[in-house]
């Protein structure tokens, strides 16, 4: 009996066939065992995350004088469908760290639970020290590297931002466990669209940015992303981490240019209304 | 066999002719030799206090803690063998974590207490093990509000408004019975507990002691179990010392 596996081995939203599933070698069809036994040995029973399903788009963050500003939109897409439009993609971890996550939503939720367990353990130890942002960043990197080695990666890119003892920390971890620190970080589409904007603003201000400048820059970047990235939305959240701790904003609706066509597109609303 | 247990105390799996399990009685004795631990449940939270006896002046301040957090919203106070109790605390933390993973919400204090009690009880059933030589007071806040449970070596698990155990159990109980629990705040309870522990402490017979205080309150600690901050603790201790001096005059 031949058993056609093609219909289950396609990724649901196959952007990239990372694990070469389409050319997957069929198990030996000529084993001497009877076919029922063979049927149970197909890999359907231990399917791994080979493709993200519900995804969040970019995270962007930049250091300013005295802290870090991080921004995300609140959209989680189902493939190309804008499915969930009010999902918080930032999370406070411990006392002075915030993470922003792009990629698979369910993996983010799982990561959240893992980190909550970690901070609860830290709370129970009660020895006067708390996990630093760098420790959390490194923990996530180890976690991600470990699961990708099992061939079952957590499909996220995580930005970790924190401020402790007057020092800011900003780092990034991706789904294979690659990690680095920088003064400004963008993930996903933002790494193409927003990163040059962050870099320019950072270089234009050799003495560092103020908090207001940084917040405005992050909002501007998210606005550009809304124009250019088809998996983004204008509903955003901006978090500020400084010596006062973590503050994640309520949802903000970005102002955008008017989207009229024709005459209205080149005139302001008032000009049209006054008939000029 | 000597007269004490007449051979019926060799194993926890043997009853004496009058229906006792001597090993459990002995475990309770171990608790009675330990520093007093009391807790008060108020309308907005719970306060736990332990009279931590200091066996040597060379110990670091704050070592051998007898109050531990188990989860964000639950903490325990200990009387009896510290090493035995730490095992229970470890187990309680594991239970709290697994409950959260399975049910997606914090473990109710009653459920946690019953699970810890079940563990204590299992250790009274087999000849190959001995009972835990400690009692613990479990306090916390959940959907039902503030909760206070006491778990004993026998595996009993009982809810209280005010509970006491250890050396000064009876004396503390007499004091606790005078309290109107529903009218008290956690701030008042801190002072009350400090006063009771100081009055119960036997200066002549006992070693030096250190007061350990833990609390949880919906208003004061945002529903988290914390150690009482230094300033509040020293206020309570000076209040207790004054009250004691006045009583002695």
UniProtKB/TrEMBL annotation, chain A:
Subcellular localization, as worded in the UniProt entry: Cytoplasm; Nucleus
SUPFAM superfamilies, A to Z: N-terminal nucleophile aminohydrolases (Ntn hydrolases)
Pfam family, one: Proteasome
GO terms for cellular component: cytoplasm; nucleus; proteasome core complex, beta-subunit complex
Swiss-Prot/TrEMBL keywords: Cytoplasm, Nucleus, Proteasome
GO biological process, one term: proteasomal protein catabolic process
Highest rank taxon of the organism: Eukaryota
InterPro entries on file: Ntn_hydrolases_N, Proteasome_beta4, Proteasome_bsu_CS, Proteasome_sua/b, Proteasome_suB-type
Signal sequence range: none
Stated role: Non-catalytic component of the proteasome.
PANTHER family recorded: METALLOPROTEASE TLDD, PROTEASOME SUBUNIT BETA
Complex formation: The 26S proteasome consists of a 20S proteasome core and two 19S regulatory subunits. The 20S proteasome core is composed of 28 subunits that are arranged in four stacked rings, resulting in a barrel-shaped structure. The two end rings are each formed by seven alpha subunits, and the two central rings are each formed by seven beta subunits. The catalytic chamber with the active sites is on the inside of the barrel.
Family: Belongs to the peptidase T1B family.
The protein's name in its UniProt record: Proteasome subunit beta
Organism encoding this protein: Tieghemostelium lacteum
Lineage: Eukaryota, Amoebozoa, Evosea, Eumycetozoa, Dictyostelia
From TrEMBL, chain B:
GO CC terms in record: cytoplasm; nucleus; proteasome core complex, alpha-subunit complex
Coiled-coil region list: none
Gene3D superfamilies: Glutamine Phosphoribosylpyrophosphate, subunit 1, domain 1
Subcellular location: Cytoplasm; Nucleus
Record-annotated membrane-spanning stretches: none
Nucleus keyword on record: yes
Main location: cytoplasm
Presence of the UniProt keyword Kinase in the record: no
Any one Gene Ontology BP term: proteasomal protein catabolic process
InterPro entries membership: Ntn_hydrolases_N, Proteasome_alpha, Proteasome_alpha-type, Proteasome_asu_N, Proteasome_sua/b
Alphabetized Pfam families for the sequence: Proteasome (PF00227), Proteasome_A_N (PF10584)
Domain Proteasome alpha-type subunits span(s) in chain numbering: 8-30
Keywords: Cytoplasm, Nucleus, Proteasome
Function as written in the Swiss-Prot or TrEMBL entry: The proteasome is a multicatalytic proteinase complex which is characterized by its ability to cleave peptides with Arg, Phe, Tyr, Leu, and Glu adjacent to the leaving group at neutral or slightly basic pH. The proteasome has an ATP-dependent proteolytic activity.
Oligomeric form and interacting partners: The 26S proteasome consists of a 20S proteasome core and two 19S regulatory subunits. The 20S proteasome core is composed of 28 subunits that are arranged in four stacked rings, resulting in a barrel-shaped structure. The two end rings are each formed by seven alpha subunits, and the two central rings are each formed by seven beta subunits. The catalytic chamber with the active sites is on the inside of the barrel.
Family recorded in the similarity comment: Belongs to the peptidase T1A family.
Protein name: Proteasome subunit alpha type
